Queue: 3 jobs
Job 1
Amino acid sequence: MDAASMGSTVTMLSRDEKDACCGCSRRCVCIIGVILVLLMIVAAAIVCAVVLALPARTPETRYCVTSDNYTGFLCDDRKTCLLPSQVCNSASDCGNGEDEASSLCSDLPNNLPGYLIFRCGNPQFWIYSNLKCNGINNCGDCSDESESLASCSSCPSNWWPCTPVLYQYCSCIPKSLCRNGVQDCVSWSDEYQCT
Ligand SMILES: [Ca+2]
Ligand SMILES: [Ca+2]
Ligand SMILES: [Ca+2]
């Protein structure tokens, strides 16, 4: 082999090596890229699994106000505000059932936040706070409808003020009982004056 052909061989080998090297680099880049994408997918899946597996964080306070303007119980989702009477009523109303947790309901009403309950005139009895000033005699002694204990200022809307005949009311009757042919007020005002 003369020097010229030797040089040609060296040049050809160098070109082959260069091609081989470039081909390998492209493959390497492709493989590394695929591995990176796979790693990112796995990492994203792990993050999603961890986030979904984490229990919802308990709100620092359960105090909230319902759409009807009652003081209520805030669920773990920090959006749902339950009426007090929906707590410990044996129905799961929060997404995780935290309104029925034994830590709240095992010793009623002592483990309930004070803003969810109303102590009646007889302290042995209690009602949920959304039941005071609703016109109905929930305590049995009308203390939940009184101005002195429950700070009830007037009859609920669509109620008629009078001394009711029926024990279930206190100082008002539902206007649906007006002029129905039945005496519901001691004074008969439900049949002769109610408008
Ligand atoms: Ca409930
Ligand atoms: Ca009541
Ligand atoms: Ca009547």
Job 2
Amino acid sequence: MAKIYNWGIIGLGKIAHKFAQDLQVVKNARLHAVASRSLEKAEAFGKTYNAAFCYGSYRELLSCPKLDVVYIATPHVSHCANAIMCLNNKIPVLCEKPFAINAAEVRRMIAASKNNNTFLMEALWTRFLPTIKKTLNIIERGTIGEVISVKADFGFKAKFDPNSRLFDQNLGGGSLLDVGIYPVFLSLLLLGKPTSIKAVANIGQSNVDEMCGMLLKYPKNKLAILHSSIITKTATEAYIYGTKGTIRINPRWHEPTSLTLMVDGKDPKDYFFEYDSNGYKYEIEEVQRCLRAKKLGSELLSHHFSLDLIELLDEIRMIAGIYYPNNDRYTKLTQPKSDSHFSLN
Ligand SMILES: NC(=O)c1ccc[n+]([C@@H]2O[C@H](COP(=O)([O-])OP(=O)(O)OC[C@H]3O[C@@H](n4cnc5c(N)ncnc54)[C@H](OP(=O)(O)O)[C@@H]3O)[C@@H](O)[C@H]2O)c1
């Protein structure tokens, strides 16, 4: 009989609900335990999704019987500590994006995974969606020739609230790490690491980047043009330009259900990939596949890739003047004194 994977969730906010809904549609997956800073909240969440164990602190989850894997859905700033806490107790981890606030934290998480011989993956769910799989497939077949440029954006209009995760600098707020990570992820997936970067951010009244614009240059004159925002809705499209044609991943491209293939001299062709869930089921299936195969990480979204991604985000942050003083203070990412964009007052 196939093994049923018993999942736990740490941090019961918005995304945790969507994830719990998707656990219900994955074969051989079950929500087993939930952990919140509030027992009342954990019990209410557990009741909604039939979790057997509900805890009023994250640490209590560590002693949960028959727990196979934990999904971490807390704000960015606590991903590293929560992941390492689980890994040190030999509990496999799927951790929300961004994997952590900076590369130093991600290196510590990867070391904990290796030292404990325990699985770890970033929950960059877009990587596992069928439209992205098809995009890679079209590129690998050479249909659009060599990819020479990527243009992608992700912007939405959030209500300003200095105490919310999105606008609170102490919680890792701002557009780049929340949504800009998706365009940066796509550029890394398709073009690799850039040789030079230009980036500008507008830092809002709560000291987080409310918009960020990025220009990334690669060998052979390849280019990525990326944009993120939490103060305005953008087209949320991704264009992949090749020497023989273009792929447009249609809005919202980070959760796409269609793409348009435009090969030079031919009629455009649409491909549709509807899915019957919130879309998180694909990353859940990947985690279970990796656990069955006793892997430390996924080949589709490896530790190495996640480290490259956060290093790239660190570099963009330094260039654009985006800082998280509490988390960055032990890294090379420290606030330059002359940076006029940045103020702690
Ligand atoms: N993959 C995706 O599509 C996607 C979408 C949205 C967000 N995310 C990622 O998921 C993470 C959580 O996002 P979210 O939108 O679910 O956030 P959220 O609604 O604010 O929930 C975060 C949860 O983390 C816990 N938490 C722990 N310390 C906290 C603190 N100091 N302040 C506030 N909450 C704290 C809380 O759970 P308890 O009260 O139960 O402890 C809270 O409900 C972020 O890293 C984000 O980037 C991913």
Job 3
Amino acid sequence: MARGNSHLPSIWLADFASKAEFDALASELGTQLEVIAEIDDRMLQSRHPFDIKAWCAACNAVTTMRITWHYCGTDGTGSVHPAWTETCACNQCGLNSRMRALVDFLFSKLNVPRSARIYMAEQTTVSYTAVQKLFDQVIGSEYLGPDYRPGEVAAEFKHHTQIRHEDLSRLSFADGSFDIVLTQDVFEHIPDYQKTFSESARVLKRGGELVFTVPFFYDLEQTRVRATVDAQGAVAHILPPEFHGNPVSNEGSLCFQNFGWDLLDAVCSAGFTQPKAHMYWGPWAGHIGFPFFVMSAHKG
Ligand SMILES: [Zn+2]
């Protein structure tokens, strides 16, 4: 089916290869950024959850999306705002803003064909279900724990069936197996993330793309390490522990680092080229709040 968004504006505002590039644009935009803040502000009709109509890149249709106040926070001025990346979930497919941005990126920026071979480091999520409907060759996995072998499929795991186990630092796939590797908010939970970038590069074919999201701290040049782990697996906390939701664990996942712009250098060190932070915004497609990014890097 033809993609249905051709008459709506693109949500992709700009691409950045460094903090200097981002800062230059931010200062150039100046008061124009206040227009975005104003529009975002006017969207907030209620202190209760509410629906908006917007175009969903995964459903390829206009749907209703639900804005809630889960994980909301206050900014420097004391104003309250939703956790925009985590909300505005499509009532049809369930994908929130950052998940839909990733799908939009695959179509709008990469023109990924339906036949592409895609590895996705999740398998029990609404995103996996959506991506699997959109492409013919999608392999998903979860990290099930140290008792599983990479590539092993668990017949049953915590109410899920046929779940493949993979460890992103030692994937079971052969070199050059995929056109696209996708991860969403995973790398911040892996202390040796450099190793996972190298493994992602290994399993991608030449010309392939790593596409991912992480909580990104665009004001940081250097990544802020929150916790480390030693060879025996003992965790040392440098900053107060921060846990994020994990689809296969009730305890959540510890966040080891808050990524800054040197993330793009780390991706390059793993053998990728052209690493970029792609900034998106567009209320017509349910992307509110600013600035948020999808990252990509090319396997040359
Ligand atoms: Zn949808």
